[in-house]
Amino acid sequence: MTIDIKKSAKNLLTDTGVSRRGFVKGAAVATGAAIGSGAITGFPTIWAQNIKNVTLRQFGTGVSNINAVADKVKEDLGFTLQMTALDSDAVAQRAVTQPNSFDIADIEYWICKKVFPAGTMQPMDTTKLKNYDAISKLFITGKLTPDSEIAQGTAPHKVGFVEGPDSVDFASAPTQWMTLIPTIYNADTLGIRPDLIDRPIDSWADLLDPAFKGKASILNIPSIGIMDAAMVCEAMGEMTYGDKGNMTQEEIDKTIAIMIEAKNAGQFRAFWKSFDESVNLMASGEVVIQSMWSPAVAAVRSKGIACKYQPLKEGYRAWGGGIGLAKHLSGLELEAAYEYIDWYLSGWVGAYLNRQGYYSAAPETAKKFMSEDEWGFWMEGKAAEGDILSPEGKVMEKAGAVRDGGSYEERMGSVACWNSVMDENKHMIRKWNEFVAA
Amino acid sequence: MASDTSKRSSYFLITPMAAIFAVFLVIPLLTIVVVSFWDYDEYRILPDFILENYSYLLGSSVTWSIYLNTLKYAALTWVFTLLIGFTVAYFLAFHVRSLTWQIVLFMLCTIPFWTSNIIRMISWIPFLGRNGLLNSALINMGIVDQPLEFLLFSDFAVVLADVHLYTLFMVVPIFNSMMRIDRSLIEAARDAGASGFETLKSVIVPLSKPGIAIGSIFVITVVMGDFITVRLMSGGQSASVGLQISNEIGLLQYPAAAASAVVLLITVLLIVTGLLRLVDIRKEL
Questions:
Q1: CB–CB of B247 and A433 under 8 A?
Q2: Looking at the domain B59-284, which fold is it?
Q3: Do you know which InterPro entries this protein is assigned to (chain A) (predicted)?
């Protein structure tokens, strides 16, 4: 306890720059309050008092670095959460090379596969998480429902657990030690302009349909683009893959050959790399069918332009991220981190993410923070009764709208492949560059 | 004794410049060269001495096609910026008689450069697009039935944007050279019975050579290293050396990017050396 008080005193000094007098007073108050409250409730409120001085530094990709979350953390838990947004390559690099520069890492599962073995993070003790049981089975066993099939690629449950508290070896079955607590995930598919396409689209193969010559696009981020390409080649019946998330050199070569052929035949209008590029291509009508992300579809629609996130019979390409603990966390900060993670699963954030069109890792807790209509629209595939608002209060869908792809079970239950990083990554990137230069 | 002092003071005077060059140019360049021999995996660079970065780079057909493509962009941009730049400079230097108007018109040329070059580039996209202003206008006027697809996300678009962005780099040095031409030489040529074209060919072009060379160096080096114009205007469908380096950096393949950068640097230095052989800038400045 003395150590903790000292630590909080140090934080007081460094963080707010109070005078020595103020510091002594503050420390005395903190001690008094801690002892007093401890006596009354019996709850280890010593944390609750000191925790206000804790600052946790979280870094990750833009999608889940939401300032509203940091504000709510301050309000609900009392401590400060600092967020830094980086691109996924930088996140991975920083997690490995600067282990002391962060407390909470917000990374995707395929990054976790490479980063966790470097030993700069520590697994979480699931017995300390009150909401552990609320986590979707997708992240525990890989099966959303007992009879669903496990998807290819870096499915989260494959890298979700390690053997023990100091282990960096991924466990083949759930253990007490979890690498990442899932935060945000979704199922991606093709976006189309239904007003410019006059036939039903139901397969990934439609991306290379000559009918859309010069009007198709694919995303130019090699590790994700190659998966979309693989979904297309498989749907065309040109290829079968052992594991689309971990292709052999030969599979990569053949896939790229098919894509190069299509490119040279003029199939693609452009390749996109950033979110807004994909929105502009679609909104301007340069492209009528392309790989797309869910919020980009929403952005096109918000301009009053028809755009559909088309479910396809071969299934979705899914991605997911989670938050994990830095190795150096201990004592009060570690307790704060656990509290934060438990809070993350307790529903408020889940509801926020659900309203953005992503999914919460603990759907049942999120339900408590959503209206029946919201839950029906986002999670059950029902028609909206009133207007559906984004977390910021903007109208996203008018009454009567139905979510593309339907319910949570329909969408997340038909995932064909998860984003991943391949053993043949270097080779894949070289071949992808050939595709771009072709 | 006196020469010793002046020698010492000139060493003293060049020290700041030399120090700045050493810190901001020589050391970073040496670092790039050193790193280009290192090894790497997904997330780390590993100090080593391997030739794999270079052997892959120089042995890959992709590199050759990328270099060919980049040289094509550089050559086309050079031709168009030179023609336009020379014409504009000629007009400013020889047709506009009053100094005031020369300054006003010259300023007018620079005004677009007060905005970000990315903005100037991106504004072409809605203009040239399938449903863009130009295509709509052409269709409404009945000139074409179908929108012209080659206008955007093509080599045409890349070269157009490059020419738009970099012509001023050609105008300024050529204009500068032309302003130094002694007007009496032109009168002498006319008195000797030379036609306008002969004067241009035998007097103005040779005396503008330093400006042409400097402008060419600017344009060629910028286009050779460019990545954002190629990415945006080709819709990500064409590659350039700069784009390749930028992609490698994005994927944390720093050693591969460093090797590409060294090869690009050597290529550009060769081109510049070639240009300097043709025109002795020092002598004619």
A1: yes
A2: MetI-like fold (1.10.3720)
A3: SBP, TAT_signal, TAT_signal_bac_arc
